[in-house]
Amino acid sequence: MSLFFPPRVLSRIKELDLDVIHFFTPSQVGMMGVYASHKCDIPLVAQHCTDLREYVEHYQDTMLLPGLLALIALLPFTMKVNGKDIRELLKMYLPRRERVQWNIDIVERVLTLIYSKCDAVIALSRKSKEQLESWQTNEDYCYEITLMPNGVDRIKPPTEKQLDDFRAEHGIDKKDEVFGFVGRLGAEKNLALLIEAFEKVAEKRPKARLLFVGDFEYRATLEQMANQTAHPDRITFTGALPRERLGVAYAAMDVFTFPSLTDTQGWVLHEAALAGLPIVLIDKDVSEVVVNGESGIYAENSAESVAGAVVDLLSHPKKRGEFGSESQRLARHFTEKRQVSKLAKLYEQVIIEHQAESND
């Protein structure tokens, strides 16, 4: 991490003669994009990819505040600001009695200020769009938001042999009823809830198996939790798999579960849907491919609720198949080609409007 923008980087950006700068998170690299846009008068598109507010709440015991305050100090050197903006930034330095709330206030205000300076802002889900709109309490910092999920294409399904080999490698029987998760095994993903839910599912479905596909620092904690359950041999960790091999993991599942409350979209939801899986989802506004009672089930943030939804789907094969077919149908509306085409049109619109403003 660095609070300085190397002049050679800005020089290289100028040489590229860019039509648009598109940044994804206002951390160091993202702020370099904001800085370059300001210095070179290039249209700027922001994509809200990280739910920083949820991260602040989840990691409330870590030292986030110094980094947030450093970001505030950086803003006047990064983008065009006026006296009103400076006063707004200075307000963020006023201490709050509650440190977590102070962090939350900074995140909401800083992102609102940054995004209000952009030519376009993209939200990947209804959840993010509504969140960003709710932060616009000051009419001086309002902006329009475009809802545009990232496009995801179907991963190539495995051959029968590849699926058999995967099952054999991980001790999965063809008669097992598998539900699971694919993604980074981070603490903020709410994955411990799946282990709690599994114990309740196993009481009613003896053939049930829980599958975790992915890796990260929280894996060790999850493995310890799994070893303390009544059926540790029925909770499987595959480790990380390259994306081209994920098709076999989805094919091995009967139900896909997504307990995270910190995601802004969740590509794996699209991958699972395209693989024909019914989905159990807690954060219902995070995806356009899950419709309650049609392609999946919305569960509450509790082991009992998640387990109930999983048991329902495992107990009704016909319903599971119908939901999986609807998952595929919905996900086909968000292919890479379709979504990139929409993004290109947004770029064209932004360029025209930016040029018009520059000529006024």
Give a nutshell description of this structure:
This protein is of the alpha/beta class. It contains 15 helices and 10 strands. The protein is globular and about 65 Å long.
What does this structure look like?
The protein has 15 helices and ten strands. It has helices at residues 7-16, 28-40, 52-58, 65-78, 83-91, 99-116, 126-134, 160-170, 192-204, 219-227, 246-251, 267-274, 303-315, 317-331, 336-359; strands spanning 21-23, 44-48, 120-123, 146-147, 177-182, 208-213, 235-239, 255-258, 279-281, 296-298. The strands form two sheets. The chain has a six-stranded parallel beta sheet, with helices on both faces. Strands 1-2-3-4 form a four-stranded parallel beta sheet, with helices on both faces.
Q: Poorly predicted ranges (pLDDT <50, ≥5 residues)?
A: none
Kindly state the percentage of residues in helix.
40-55%
SSE run: HEHEHHHHEHEHEHEHEHEHEEHHH
Tell me the β content. 5-15%
Largest sheet: 6 strands, parallel
The strand count comes to 10
Q: Could you tell me the radius of gyration in angstroms?
A: 23 Å
Overall body shape: globular
**Strand ordering within the main sheet:** 7-6-5-8-9-10
Mean pLDDT: 93
In DSSP terms (H or I, runs of 4 or more residues), the helix count works out at 15
Helix/strand-derived category reads alpha/beta
State the separation between the terminal residues, measured CA to CA: 38 Å
